[in-house]
Amino acid sequence: MSLQKHAVPLDERALSACRPGTLGHGVRHLRLAHRLHRISHGKPQFITWAAIKGQFGAGFKRMDHFKETFHLALRQVLACYPKAKIEVDHKGLTLRHSPPPVSARVVLVGKPGDE
Questions:
Q1: Residue 25 has what pLDDT?
Q2: How far apart are CA 50 and CA 79, in angstroms?
Q3: φ, ψ at 99 (rounded to 5°)
């Protein structure tokens, strides 16, 4: 029930076209897809580089090396999710409300025996 209530429509073609790379590409795409459309309109969320590195950069000792790798990975994710509204600056990322990667589909199922 929880999965249905909080489901995010995804484009399977985009996910398969986005080749896996460093930092778990598919996971990043799914996290952004899940998070961005739940951000309130007009209330962006800011995440510091330290927080991002804490979540994704366990294997990096230097912040500059992490940022370089993260920027590349983010460009790959945005190629698959072009409607994602993310601003990057020297302090971190600003996430804004964005539509999900694909529109939700409605499937109507009739009762057994209905034809």
A1: 52
A2: 25
A3: -70, 155
Signed CA dihedral, 10, 12, 16, 18: sign only: negative
Q: Which two tokens stand for residue 40?
A: 């309130």
Q: Report pLDDT digits (tens) over 56-109.
A: 888 899 999 999 998 988 888 888 788 899 999 999 999 999 988 766 555 556
Say which DSSP state 23 is in: T
Q: Output the pTM of the full model.
A: 0.67
CA atoms of 19 and 26, how far apart (whole Å): 8
Residue 73, helix vs strand vs coil: helix
| Token couple for 68 | 């370089």
Contact (Cβ atoms closer than 8 angstroms) between residue 53 and residue 59: no
CA distance 44 to 86: 10
Q: Is the dihedral of CA 36, 37, 39, 44 positive or negative?
A: positive
Percentages (nearest 5) of helix, strand, coil residues in the chain = 40, 10, 45
